[in-house]
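Per your request, structure below.
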C-alpha cells in the first residue's frame, strides 16, 4: 500500500495571507462525505465520513478543533465483508500571528493530536484499512502528538518568500493487537516558498518541503525508519471578479527506508521502496453572483514503480489515477455557505506485493459541507 504525504506548507500560506485579520470571529464547518470504490479483483468498499470543525479568532490568536466520525466497509474476495466505525483523533491547532509589526511576518503554531480515535485494531478491523487513494480516512487513531512550528514571510513589491520549520513528536500507542507499544518516529521538517505577483490578478509560486524521521520502536526495540522525503511544487493562480483559476503540479521523492534485520538491528534497504510521485490538478471557479459559484476540477496522479526488480517480492508497480469533479457553492446567509461536491476517479495499479496481478479501480465521492461564522 502506498503512503500519501500531505504538504507541510499550510502555515506559510496562512501567514502570507494574514494581513488585516484582527476581528473576533467563531467559525464552524460540518458536513457529510461518502466514498465508494470497486476493483476488478472482486473487491469493493465504501466510507461515510462526517467531519466537524470549530474555530475561533481573536486579534492575532486563532484556534481550531477538528474531529470526525467515520464508518468504513470493505468486501474482499475470499475474506468477506468487514466494517470499522469510530471517531477519529481530535486535532487542536493553536497559532499566534505577528503581522506588520516587524520587517518579517511571523506565525507561531502549536498543533496537537489528541487520541480520541480507535487503536488496538483486531485482525478483522485491519482488513478494512484501505489505500488513501480510495477513501478519505485511513488513520483511525494514533497517540498523543505535539507539533510546534514557526513560519515567516516577507513581501516586496512583486516578490514574496516564506520559510517554516517544525518538529512533530509522536506518542506511543497500540496500533493493533499484534503491534502493541508502538512508538512511531518523530518528524523534523522545513518548508519554503517563493512567490511572484502578476499585477493584482495573478500569482506564481514555487514551494518545497523536506522531512526526516527518527526510528520507529516496537516494545522499546528499533523497528523501522521511514525514508526522508523531498517535495517540490509550482502553482499559478489567476483571480478576477468572477473567475478564479488554479493550476498546481508537485513531485514527491523519497530515499531508502530502514528495516529490522535478523540481528534485530535496522538495515537500509538495498533499493528505494517508494517510487517517485507526481500530482497535477486544475480548477476553474466561476461566480454567477455574490452568492453562487461553480467549480469544475481535474486531477492526475502518477506514481512510478519502485527500484526493486519485477521478480522481487518487494516490487511495486506504477499507479495512475484520473479524477474529475464539480463543486456547487451557495451563500445561504450573510454568515454561512453550503457546498455540494461530486468526484469520479479511475485508477490503474500494476502488480506489487499487495496484489499479484494488475488491478483497475473506479469510484466516486459525494460531499455536502456547511461553513459558517458568528
Amino acid at each position: 500500500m502506498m503512503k500519501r504525504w500531505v504538504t507541510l506548507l499550510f502555515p506559510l500560506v496562512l501567514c502570507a495571507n494574514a494581513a488585516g485579520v484582527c476581528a473576533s470571529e467563531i467559525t464552524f464547518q460540518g458536513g457529510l462525505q461518502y466514498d465508494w470504490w470497486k476493483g476488478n479483483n472482486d473487491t469493493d468498499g465504501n466510507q461515510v465520513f462526517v467531519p466537524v470543525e470549530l474555530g475561533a479568532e481573536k486579534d492575532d490568536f486563532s484556534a481550531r478543533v477538528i474531529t470526525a466520525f467515520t464508518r468504513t466497509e470493505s468486501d474482499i474476495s475470499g475474506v468477506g465483508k468487514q466494517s470499522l466505525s469510530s471517531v477519529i483523533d481530535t486535532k487542536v491547532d493553536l497559532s499566534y500571528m505577528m503581522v506588520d509589526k516587524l520587517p518579517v511576518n511571523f506565525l507561531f503554531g502549536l498543533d496537537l493530536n489528541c487520541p480520541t480515535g480507535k487503536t488496538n485494531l483486531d485482525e478483522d478491523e485491519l482488513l478494512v484499512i484501505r489505500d488513501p487513494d480510495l477513501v478519505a480516512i485511513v488513520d483511525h487513531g494514533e497517540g498523543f502528538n505535539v507539533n510546534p512550528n514557526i513560519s515567516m514571510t516577507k513581501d516586496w513589491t512583486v516578490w514574496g518568500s516564506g520559510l517554516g520549520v517544525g518538529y512533530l513528536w509522536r506518542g506511543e500507542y497500540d496500533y493493533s493487537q499484534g503491534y502493541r507499544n508502538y512508538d512511531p518516529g518523530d518528524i523534523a521538517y522545513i518548508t519554503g516558498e517563493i512567490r511572484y505577483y502578476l499585477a493584482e490578478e495573478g500569482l506564481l509560486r514555487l514551494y518545497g518541503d523536506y522531512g526526516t524521521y527518527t526510528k520507529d520502536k516496537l516494545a522499546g526495540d528499533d523497528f523501522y525508519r521511514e525514508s526522508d522525503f523531498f517535495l517540490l511544487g509550482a502553482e499559478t493562480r489567476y483571480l478576477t471578479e468572477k473567475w478564479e483559476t488554479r493550476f498546481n503540479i508537485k513531485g514527491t521523492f523519497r530515499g531508502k527506508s530502514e528495516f529490522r534485520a535478523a540481528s534485530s538491528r535496522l538495515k537500509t534497504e538495498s533499493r528505494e521502496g517508494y517510487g517517485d510521485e507526481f500530482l497535477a490538478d486544475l480548477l476553474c471557479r466561476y461566480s454567477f453572483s455574490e452568492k453562487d459559484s461553480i467549480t469544475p476540477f481535474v486531477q492526475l496522479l502518477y506514481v512510478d514503480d519502485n527500484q526493486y526488480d519485477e521478480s522481487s517480492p518487494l516490487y511495486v508497480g506504477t499507479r495512475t489515477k484520473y479524477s474529475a469533479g464539480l463543486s456547487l457553492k451557495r451563500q445561504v446567509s450573510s454568515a454561512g455557505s453550503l457546498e455540494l461536491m461530486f468526484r469520479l476517479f479511475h485508477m490503474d495499479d500494476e502488480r506489487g506485493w499487495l496484489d499479484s496481478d494488475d488491478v483497475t479501480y473506479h469510484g466516486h465521492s459525494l460531499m455536502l459541507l456547511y461553513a459558517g461564522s458568528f
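The chain has one domain: 10-373.

Regards,
D.
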